[in-house]
Specification:
The protein has 102 residues and is mainly alpha-helical. It contains four helices and no strands. The model has no long low-confidence stretch (mean pLDDT 84).
């Protein structure tokens, strides 16, 4: 813990989110950009939810809960908000990226 924040949980959530978003880059390159608009939204949503889920589970585990308890104690509203924000951010980033290139 650092200033009341669980750094390990944050790093784990960031690693999951970054890995998933990296896969979006790979899909975009492989498809020549054809899958980018839909993929950006879908992958953003998945990355947001998966990152939040991972952060919560690792944080709960670091507090001494078993893995089963850690999964049961996740905040589904928080994950829902992360899914929504990830989808919006993924979609916006795609179009802002195209606007910058043009």
């Amino acid at each position: 813990m650092f200033n009341g924040e669980d750094i390990i949980a944050g790093a784990a959530g960031g690693a999951v989110t970054g890995g998933i978003m990296g896969a979006l880059t790979d899909v975009t390159v492989v498809t020549g950009g054809a899958a980018a608009p839909v993929a950006a939204v879908v992958v953003g949503a998945v990355a947001g939810g998966a990152g939040d889920f991972t952060t919560q589970v690792v944080s709960n585990t670091n507090k001494g809960h078993s893995l089963r308890e850690s999964v049961r104690e996740i905040d589904l509203v928080s994950i829902g908000v992360s899914v929504f924000c990830g989808a919006v951010a993924g979609g916006i980033s795609h179009y802002i990226g195209n606007a910058i290139v043009i």
